[in-house]
Amino acid sequence: MMKDKTGTGETVQLDHGSGGIASNRLVRERITDRLGHISGTAPLEDCAVTDFPNMSKLAFSTDSYVVDPLFFPGGDIGCLAVHGTINDLAMRGAEPVCLSLAFIIEEGLSIYELELIVDSIGRASDKCGVPVVTGDTKVVPGGSCDRIFINTSGAGFLPMERDISSGNARPGDAILISGSCGDHGITIMTARAEMSLTGNIQSDTAPLHDMVKRLLNHIPEDAVHVMRDPTRGGFATALNEIAADSGVSMEIEEAAVPVRQEVRAACEILGLDPLYLANEGKMLLIVEEAHAGKALDIMRSFPHGREAAITGRVTGRDNPGRVTMKTSAGGSRIMAALHGNPLPRIC
Amino acid sequence: MMKDKTGTGETVQLDHGSGGIASNRLVRERITDRLGHISGTAPLEDCAVTDFPNMSKLAFSTDSYVVDPLFFPGGDIGCLAVHGTINDLAMRGAEPVCLSLAFIIEEGLSIYELELIVDSIGRASDKCGVPVVTGDTKVVPGGSCDRIFINTSGAGFLPMERDISSGNARPGDAILISGSCGDHGITIMTARAEMSLTGNIQSDTAPLHDMVKRLLNHIPEDAVHVMRDPTRGGFATALNEIAADSGVSMEIEEAAVPVRQEVRAACEILGLDPLYLANEGKMLLIVEEAHAGKALDIMRSFPHGREAAITGRVTGRDNPGRVTMKTSAGGSRIMAALHGNPLPRIC
């Protein structure tokens, strides 16, 4: 819990979810006015109407955020909810247009924490240039949810002919990751365990739409086959899903996958594999080999892409769904999807 | 809780939310495959891409559903989540294109109940002709949410020039309601109190987009000023919000507002006013007086619009935001927005 520096001790009450005058005031004073001041977003409506470009397809995505703790090194549930949904749109090659914002709040949440979260949403939305245009707020009795859950959905547009999807990886393609693996997952796990670690471990939560835009501006569109943000299940699980969807096998060089030293050390203490931990500001890119170098340069031109790396390649179609790892010791093993070992409420 | 007729006793486990193999199986076998079989919806993706008409504006809406109980006379949380978001789109005059579907599930929810809910979503989506195209599933530990919460967001399109909104009511307009008030609210309250009432009290949950379409096809578009589904806060609160947004006063004839006899009787027992109770399949229409009769005929041509009525009119601009009620006894009183009296988890 964050210390209430306002000292008012105000909390969200059941009446704030009734749909009457109290609801209206909570939403206006604590949410829509604050968002408007920060991000210039127009008042949130039950249903928003916005412009949409001609000759475009609609991209549409949704995610609920139930992360525990609400505030963690590098971010909080608010900016995470903005970045996560923008990234889901970006991974299809879409340009995000607008977001929806739905809160489920437990009676008794401090208004101070709610405002911190709303402010974080406003700043993230403003920085990304993607406005929140519609919303909903529900309040449930104490014990019926854990403080606050957030759903953001997003709409975006993309050119009619653009086709970037999990099923498009082809033998010969290079597999890139835009930075180090496991930062978000290990941050949440250590924050929850109240472990105090040396080094600067923090969530990588960040928007990826600008990186995608630059990639698509500089690489022939039909050479970009798959983009994916490896969130829950991490790098390893995302590659397994892509390999299965595309009917291909893949080979990854263990030594090429970037993992920060502090993350590796914390993972050893907790018995976790960083390649299975959630990332919230990283993208996988599967691209024709001839363009891999250019893509790497573009990724590295962004602050959150400095550690980008070419980690392996799509090997063939004989063993569809199989991802193997060439270990640093020179061996080879199957890198399966996440199985068991639940890490609940990581995002 | 619904009796598990499959007798397997299977429940949702934390591992189902990990993003790994168990998550993948739960989502595929219990959600996407079932939805696909029922509604023909394509597999749900992290981010869906669908066609969107040229020369249209984008309508975008979101709602979370936390209703308790999950199953109630006339419906359940699943069909409610489909109808509610379709209705929010329709109230702006938009044609719904697609829905997103996000579950937050408490560890221990029976798979049987999850499947009942998914099946209800599939049938409602199919019947409305609005596919679910993208989704998300989170699982939280026991005690961190109450069984299941659902968020649906929706995208729709509308012609560039269409402008139906809460701020457009004008003096002289007629105020119509498409049917009886309070049915959903009283159903939930009596179900939760485990009251057994005589008469057939059930939720009015229903989609309204077809009624809207027919209204807009037969009445000049610029004569249709406001549409609103009076959900939380009910008929009275919705009118107060519209009166404030439009800067007008309104007068309602108490005797003209349809309330079913069973609902009125249950409200008297519970000390509730049906005009402040949630509706989930009713619309308010504020339309130029000359077209009110035609609008009434159109509403009444639908099974769930048979009790539609002209309930009052927009009176002027001298007392913006004031809604008065001419009582059956011949008096007149202010009909304020809902204040206090929280009815949590009504939708």
Structural class based on helices, strands and sheet pairing of chain A: alpha+beta
Tally of distinct domains of chain A: 3
Oligomer: homodimer
- Total strands of chain A: the figure is 14
CATH architecture of the largest domain in chain A: Alpha-Beta Complex
The rounded Rg of chain A comes to 21 Å
What amount of the residues of chain A lies in strands?
15-25%
Fold-level CATH name of the largest domain in chain A: Phosphoribosyl-aminoimidazole Synthetase, Chain A, domain 2
Low-confidence stretches of chain A: none
Number of helices of chain A: 8
How far is the first residue's CA from the last residue's CA of chain A? 17 Å
Shape of chain A: globular
CATH class of the largest domain in chain A: Alpha Beta
Share of helical residues of chain A:
25-40%
The chain-level mean pLDDT of chain A equals 93
Largest sheet descriptor of chain A: 7 strands, mixed
The CATH H-level homologous superfamily of the largest domain in chain A: PurM-like C-terminal domain
